[in-house]
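Human: If only I could read backbone structure tokens as easily as an amino acid sequence. Take your time, and here it is.
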Amino acid sequence: KYINYELKEIIEFKELIKKKRIYGLNVTIPYKESIIPFLDELSKEAKIIGAVNTIRFHKNKLIGYNTDYIGFTKSIKPLLKNRKKAIILGDGGSAKAVKYSLKKLNIEYKVAKRNTSFNYSDISNEIIEEYPIIINTTPEGCYPYKNDFPKIPYKYLTKKNLLFDLIYNPLETRFLAYGRAKNSQTKNGLEMLKIQAEESWRIWNL
């Protein structure tokens, strides 16, 4: 069985694994970084990325992996074409996997987040032209907050842009809908979810 366990605080993780018979876990927002101190080992990629979304229980050890970057890489790579620069919206655990992936793909990137030196309001027409890929790694727009969206200047988008949203519920967020309205190429996180899940399954069955 694949069961959803909701934690109010990360410290509840210790009790969860004591009480339940678990062979592996996926970790999602907001615990991809805070789970690390509870683990015995990290894969090479998870160490570099600094975030974990997959845990393997092996020989009384908890081993952390990151399969998000694999899912993201395989999902976005066919869409890149001649686009070489990206803006990442948000800087949490999911963004860390995206950064690792973009480096592997030789894509230069900027990170935009609220209350920093480069935030949403700093995204100008010139920046959108120079950085045609825009990736939403925030939960803005995710169910049940479907009406939320990153407040970037969508008016500057064109058919040259690619908008990628890690969210898959709903299938089309307002972020993607605004991009589609400007004829930008859009993609949600559903394929990424499936690929990272297949990779997690492979890890649990090593």
